[in-house]
Amino acid sequence: MKPIAACNDFVVKFANVNGSGSASANELFAKAILRMGVPVSPRNIFPSNIQGLPTWYEVRVSGNGWLGRRGGVDLMVAMNPQTWDADVKEIEPGGYLVHDSTRALPKSKFRDDIHVIGVPLTEICNRAWTDPRQRQLFKNIMYVGALSVLLDIDVAIIERLLGEQYKGKEKLLDANKHALHLGRDYIGNPSADDRPCASFDTAQFGLRVKHADGVGERIFVDGNSAAALGCVYGGATVCAWYPITPSSSLAEAFQKYCMKYRVDAETGANRFAIVQAEDEIASIGMVVGAGWNGARAFTATSGPGVSLMTEFIGLAYFAEIPVTIVDVQRGGPSTGMPTRTQQADLLACAYASHGDTKHVLLFPCDPNECFAFSADALDLADRLQTPVFVMTDLDIGMNQRLCAPFDWDDARAYDRGKVMSAAELEAGKDFGRYKDVDGDGIPYRTYPGTHPDKGAYFTRGTSRDPYARYSERGPDYVYNMERLLKKFETAKALVPQPLLRKATQPTTLGAIHFGSTAPAMDEAIVALERNGVHLDTLRVRAFPFADAVAEFVAAHERVFVVEQNRDAQLRSMLVNEFGIDPARLVPVLHYDGTPITARFITRTIEQQVGAQQPREADKVA
Length: 621
Description:
Layout: E1 6-7, E2 9-17, H1 22-35, E3 40-45, E4 54-62, E5 73-78, H2 84-90, E6 91-100, E7 115-119, H3 121-128, H4 132-150, H5 155-165, H6 170-188, E8 207-208, E9 219-222, H7 223-233, E10 238-241, H8 248-261, E11 273-276, H9 280-292, E12 297-301, H10 303-319, E13 323-329, H11 346-350, E14 360-362, H12 367-384, E15 387-393, H13 394-397, E16 400-403, H14 422-426, H15 474-491, E17 499-501, E18 509-514, H16 518-530, E19 536-540, E20 542-543, H17 547-554, E21 558-563, H18 569-578, E22 585-589, H19 598-609
Parallel strand pairs: 1-8, 2-5, 5-6, 6-7, 10-11, 10-12, 12-13, 13-15, 14-15, 18-19, 18-21, 21-22
Antiparallel strand pairs: 2-4, 3-4, 9-16, 14-20, 17-19
Helix pairs in contact: 1-4, 1-5, 3-4, 4-6, 7-8, 7-12, 9-10, 16-19
């Protein structure tokens, strides 16, 4: 089989054991290519235990700038005997397998249509080090060194990255450099002590990295860190949370940024409060209390946490208290797959709590929007006096991604919404806590203690009249429930609007997608057009849906709805909110816990429209 040949356009996957110290080496590999000016999109696929189970790290190298998963693997670095067979199966025909050849494997463990490069990593490490932990750790750096020769990665860049990582720790730096060059020497300048690299001539290795200028001014950051910084810039001063994968690093990042930006320079006092509560119920209760008292407050959680929070979410909705919830979605139901990604919390969040409730949801697609939407959510929560969800997921939250630099206007003022002042109360201005005075459904509020005997000091989750007096009268209840719907309608113009992309020629087909499907969808649209399938696309960025979403559906005979869950939750919401004929909305569903790929979208839509079969290079492995 002819070796795959590609420059700045391939997929490398590392198969390791969790707890082996491979993560930093794999990240070093990805960042080295990025420093060469070539866009990369790494994804860490890890188990939910601490140590011992399989873990994978996939790096998409794309000179064209595609950041979604492509599908298929061109180069597999197989370091885990437990997953060997499945890992080898993933390799594209003509692709490459790099493995530890210290122990010989039977021919049946390989494929005739791939090219094998054996590096005796364990043997070389055992000669160089006596400490068992060092042998394990430096084996990872050694394979990075071997790959740097095979792929022609600039070794000076790798050494600079190691220097940054181990600054001030010269002993560790020297040992890592030594391991790096042991791997390089085995491929590029093997000593007489080393066995031959393999039957495959490495001179025929066809994958290359070449210096480019494809990164530009973009930054490389994970979505959780971006959302945390957005909360800082958005004015959050209170965070109450309970640890849950994959959201924990968001609260931890918020604390790190607060320690840098929210400590009084003169007194050293913290101008923020971060509480790790005993559970999710307590954390949302604290956030609701802080919001009622006028603080900008948020919590970070995932699906199981939202399940526990629903009663307090309902209280915040009906008592009309600003609350921001960042939901970093993972696989469910129940414990599900804690370290896998999904977009399966839409229905749970949009209609959270019993009775008739509707909540504002924001759908960021990358770390840049995680930053912007988290700050916006705090404004929206105050403006609308209601819970607002930022619906990110593990793929965005825990993986580093190239994105546009964050943008912030220092002149931007926080939108605190309708807050009545002490002077206005003292002047006798009519204050009805739940009274709609201007037709947008949003009442005025006061911060507790604004005035000694006027304004609001208490709230409740029961029915009341417009002046917050307890009432079980039907007309009072209906007034409030219809006013809440009017408020939700007002939100349509305030939330991020959908983004339309027109096909290169007129078409009756459309596609709707949201969130982390965007990078793969962008690439799939180009592949589909190349194969004769033309789609107008609309990326939905918020709920409530803008009227433009219904207009988009009405303008097309069929609309594919691309999402990462089993039950087509976005599609269900579109039908529920607009009364659309379900037959016009064709689900494209991916829910195995891995991020959706461009190849999956392309193949699924082509099968639906009956178009020509994809070219061989576009097929799913």
